[in-house]
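Usage

Read records sequentially. Each one opens with the input sequence:
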Amino acid sequence: MHTRLSYHAALDQHRMQRGLSRISWATWAIVAVTMVMWCFTAYETALVVGAHTLHDILANVLANAINVQPKDNDALSGVLITYGAKDNDLIVHGQYWRFVAPIFLHVNALHVGLNMLNLVVMGVFVERLVGHLRFLLIYLVTGVVGIIASFYFAPQDISVGASGAIFGLVGAYSMFVLMHRHAFRGGGIFAVPWLVAVIGLNLSIGLFVQNVDNYAHLGGLISGCLLGWWFAPLYRLSDTHAFVDMHSLSRRWFLAVLTIAGTLALALLSVYLQTGR
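and closes with the structure output:
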């Protein structure tokens, strides 16, 4: 009974908000920033390959919308590296901001479109579930951990994309379902395997599609599960017989600070292990 009450309290929490607090503004802000960054890098790439009129720029963007043309590949790579793509050589030389910037960069229209569609579908719901600040914490930390995993396990790859952070949201939601599995029909016997199947299917795509960074996906997913276990809403009756979220940031602020500090330490550790200094 407590599990079912906790589950429904978490789902209904956003309905009690008013004004801007009721809108999933963090999700939409991330989408807006990411889309602006893609438009900017696509514009810069078009300029590099010699497109200067609006018609030529749009033609270049459309030509690379699904598959990057071989003649434009070097130009696109150069632009993405300039504006923050994960490049191990640059990171080990002190450009640590590249653990964050790749989350907001994408290759082409197909790449950014699919990621932002997944973010809107998953992000709006998860943000309503956990609240704005916890959502930002989960999204940014899991995105960075995904880049750290790519940095360590795929040092030769130039990597960009929000998919690690999106997998982090999936992991956090999976933990919410697992903690509240008894609120589902059959004790979650259908909900939990369905989540496992969806995660497995998405991860398996990276085994068959080129240039998919599964290390970033796994890093985001695993860290998302951990953060979900720590911060996903879990309501319990207080001494005053009111339902209180035991995992709120106001109650777990110290754990949130440790999470951020631990992520920074993990980034520095990965650099040390790669360089030995």
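Summary fields computed downstream for this record:
- Residues 235 and 244 are 5 Å apart (CA to CA).
- The mean pLDDT is 90.
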